[in-house]
């Protein structure tokens, strides 16, 4: 987990990226780790209304980090479609 993603929710309601307003939302958070993607559902996060950046609390980051390091049994597996932009552009 990138430590820059972790903020203290009580501390701020401004996006550190763009200064936009943060809204508390329940999101699906996808976290790349090596060659894999891990998806976490029903994550309580602060989402910037301006740039869409998802900010996780330190506690949430810790839980996600732990789940990745010593994997819990996932609720389900889903395939994630991956696109290469140059290929979409016909190159
Ligand atoms: Zn922002």
Question: Can you put this structure into words, describing what you see?
Answer:
The protein has 91 residues and is an alpha+beta fold. The protein has a single domain, classed as Roll (Ubiquitin-like (UB roll)). Helices cover 18% and strands 34% of the residues. It is built from two helices and four strands. It has helices at 58-69, 85-88; strands at 6-7, 22-33, 36-48, 54-57. It has a four-stranded mixed sheet with strand order 1-4-3-2, covered by helices on one side. Strand 3 (36-48) and strand 4 (54-57) form a beta hairpin. The mean pLDDT is 84. Bound molecules: zinc ion (ZN).
Name its key features.
four-stranded mixed β-sheet; binds zinc ion; 91 residues; alpha+beta; Ubiquitin-like (UB roll); 4 strands
Ligand types? zinc ion
**Which CATH class?**
Alpha Beta
* Number of separate structural domains: 1
CATH architectural arrangement: Roll
Q: What kind of sheet is the major sheet?
A: 4 strands, mixed
Rg, Å, rounded: 15 Å
The tally of helices reads: 2
Query: How do the SSEs run, as a string of H and E?
Result: EEEEHH
Task: Give a brief outline of the structure.
Helices cover 18% and strands 34% of the residues. With 91 residues, it is of the alpha+beta class. Strands 1-4-3-2 form a four-stranded mixed β-sheet, covered by helices on one side.
Question: What's the helix and strand layout?
Answer:
Blueprint: E1 6-7, E2 22-33, E3 36-48, E4 54-57, H1 58-69, H2 85-88
The site of zinc ion has 8 residues, from loops.
